């Protein structure tokens, strides 16, 4: 993370379940980057969705991060088997916003059905984003269409599908034509659709190359060729995941 900040990254995405909030907070403190230049996101884990747990868990996250508030807090996953109503934990998260613990709230891994419940619970204007798996092999078209209709921004995680996208011959062909890397092509595809993209890497050269993907412009033909790669190949699918659209 320190390398990313040195290179110019300013969006930091962490979560309670990652177990690294304290390390993230220390890296922020050591970086010398002004707090108002950073956008810090964390996520509330499923075990903290129960009644009265959302706010205390977020306060614990803030303590670990060494911050007075984060810029965005997401519900990491819907409650497994929908045991806890969306309205309950999103209502508590909205209260956290009102108390100044987070500047904005949102959701992650929400299906269309869950988004409908979220909209009913807190209003569409309160849902800053739905962070979901999107990449050329899993384009999530039904969900994307619904989110766009509602005006809900999408954040694409695992945009390279743990490297699977990089091995696609069509991605490699487009990359060669642009003098770019396959990763840059995949990231540019997401960016040109208006998604926020959160790739991850531990290598400085990859971090720098990923950042440069914002400068790559793909043609209409390139975008269409990548669109044809969709085959519903999901990477993040734990046993407690919802029934996907």
UniProtKB/TrEMBL annotation:
Query: Locate the NADP-dependent oxidoreductase domain: which residues?
Result: 2-230
Superkingdom of this entry's organism? Answer: Bacteria
**Which is one GO molecular function term here?**
2,5-didehydrogluconate reductase activity
Annotated positions binding substrate: 76
State the active site.
18
The EC class name is: oxidoreductase
Q: Which Gene3D superfamilies has this protein been placed in?
A: NADP-dependent oxidoreductase domain (3.20.20.100)
Record keywords, A-Z: NADP, Oxidoreductase
One GO biological process this protein is involved in is: methylglyoxal catabolic process
Q: Where in the chain is the site Lowers pKa of active site Tyr?
A: 43
Q: Which InterPro entries match?
A: AKR, Aldo/ket_reductase_CS, NAD(P)_OxRdtase_dom_sf, NADP_OxRdtase_dom
What EC number(s) is this enzyme filed under? 1.1.1.274
As for family, the record states:
Belongs to the aldo/keto reductase family.
Under the heading PANTHER family, the entry gives: 2,5-DIKETO-D-GLUCONIC ACID REDUCTASE, NADP-DEPENDENT OXIDOREDUCTASE DOMAIN-CONTAINING PROTEIN
This chain belongs to which protein, by name? Answer: Aldo/keto reductase
This protein's species is: Ectopseudomonas mendocina (Pseudomonas mendocina)
Q: What is the lineage of its organism?
A: Bacteria, Pseudomonadati, Pseudomonadota, Gammaproteobacteria, Pseudomonadales
